[in-house]
Amino acid sequence: GDSVTQMEGPVTLSEEAFLTINCTYTATGYPSLFWYVQYPGEGLQLLLKATKADDKGSNKGFEATYRKETTSFHLEKGSVQVSDSAVYFCALTYGSSNTGKLIFGQGTTLQVKP
Amino acid sequence: DGGITQSPKYLFRKEGQNVTLSCEQNLNHDAMYWYRQDPGQGLRLIYYSQIVNDFQKGDIAEGYSVSREKKESFPLTVTSAQKNPTAFYLCASSRANRDGYTFGSGTRLTVV
User: What are the chain A neighbours of B6 within 8 Å (beta carbons)?
Assistant: First the structure.
């Protein structure tokens, strides 16, 4: 069945370091792909999305490219800040029908130290 | 501004009691979802509804119940049959398309 696999955390970086959080997926059809971010004690917020192969989603300095050939959607940021410390979730639309339902990865915790 | 509202933010329950968590959206979204999140864990789907007066069990529905009498509202009842209800509960809504979810800010339930 459809699934999402994220790299295990926590990921610990120093401020201004380069960030990569890996996400790979298994899916039937052509899913849309998403990254959500969750700050401590809050709900999830949509960070970026891509709806078809080779699309690049971007927001707040974060980027991810929909790679159909490698079934990946890795999240990157060139220079992280302490305020980026959060849990990041990769997700995809479920199945071939447009129900809107998402499948989430397990989440990756990012800790950025000053 | 449109959004999705969960209340209360914090909820305390005595053992053996049922409690109801509120979720209201004014985004005109068709589908609504309830997730449970335990510390350091991912999201687990409890129930979801894609249309008024209809809902489906998710992966961990035992000990929970829902209703969907209005498009805007999808309350979750945590019953006394739920053996370990202490968790962070998240409600979300979506259109029936590929735009993704909008989440509420969550309710933290603690059994005392």
Answer: 43
Minimum CA–CA partner of B45 in chain A:
A103
Does the beta-carbon distance from A101 to B48 stay under 8 Å?
Answer: yes
Spatial CA neighbour of B89 closest among B17, B11, B29, B16: B11
Q: How far apart are CA A30 and CA A53, in angstroms?
A: 8
- Residue that is written with structure tokens 């829902």 in the block: B66
Q: β-strand A62-65 against A86-93: which pairing, if any?
A: unpaired
Express each pLDDT in A2-25 by its tens digit. Answer: 899 999 889 999 999 999 999 999
Task: Give CA–CA dist A39/A87, Å, rounded.
Answer: 7
- Encoded tokens for A27: 């899916």
Chain B residues within an 8 Å CB radius of A51: 98
Burial class (CB in 10 A: 0-12, 13-18, 19+), A28: exposed
DSSP string, B65-99: EE--SBTTB--EEE-TT-S---EEEEEEEE-SSSS
CA A84 vs CA A20, B2, B41: distances in Å? 13, 26, 19
Which residues in chain B are contacts of A36 at CB distance < 8 A? Answer: 101, 103
For residue A93, give the chain B residue with the closest CA.
B98
How many residue pairs bridge chain A and chain B with CB atoms within 8 Å of each other?
65
pLDDT classification of B2: cutoffs 50, 70, 90: confident
For the segment A46-98, what is each residue's pLDDT rounded down to a tens digit? 999 999 999 999 999 999 999 999 999 999 999 999 999 999 999 998 765 56
